[in-house]
Amino acid sequence: MKNIPTLLQIPALRNVLSGRTTIPKTELRNFYQAQSLSFNEQLFRRALYALEAKGILLPLGAGMYAVKEKTSSKAYFSYHPSKQLSSLDQVLRRAFPYLDYLCWETSLLHEFMTHQPGQGMYIVEVEKDACESVFNRLREKYSSQVFLKPTRNVMEMYVLHQTDPIIVIPLISQSPSTSHKDIPFPKLEKILVDTFANDNIFYAFQGEELSNIFTRVFDTYWVNERTMFRYASRRKTGKKLAEFIHKKTNIQLALQEKNNR
Fold this sequence. Notes:
The protein has 261 residues and is an alpha/beta fold.
């Protein structure tokens, strides 16, 4: 069995990676197969794992890897929930211990915008059949701050006049999720897609600001394009999202680079 340094062929690999920001998995496989006739899938998986562990490559999804040395300023998205969001989560956790839900706050998008909104919103996504029950429970605690599936008209007339409004909407199945400080939280890819797709609730983030958000998020964080577009497809907005990114931002998608090779 080859040892890891010999297996990785780092000097030769760096020549392949020179000047690149991304590389497809198939090209990596071809590179290693050319190094040894005895190379197999098990060794290839070991090589990829070692390259990720050494910080040479970072997985982007869709069979693409980023060359970390060329894009070292990017980070993985992490978030520190506010006290208000933590309090909201505790209310949900105590009242509905077995409920699947996600909650987040739109203020996390403000740093990517040119014009700052006057207030942030708290988004609570819950199973469709539980929306009304959650809405009623939150109304007991937060009174007129809570809105259930508001329309654009309700958003304009009532929601935006509230301080820290809470919006309850149905949770789309198979939504990309994670957690921050044990709070069930949507992944960054889901937040981007939802902000793009739901222009009623997120209409304050549309237009040029939406382009700013996408561009600056992609410049700042690693975005898993496969996760993003798979979820966009579930929302039946994948093609529109791809067209928006192509026409309204300067983002170079790794998926596009892969298709152009």
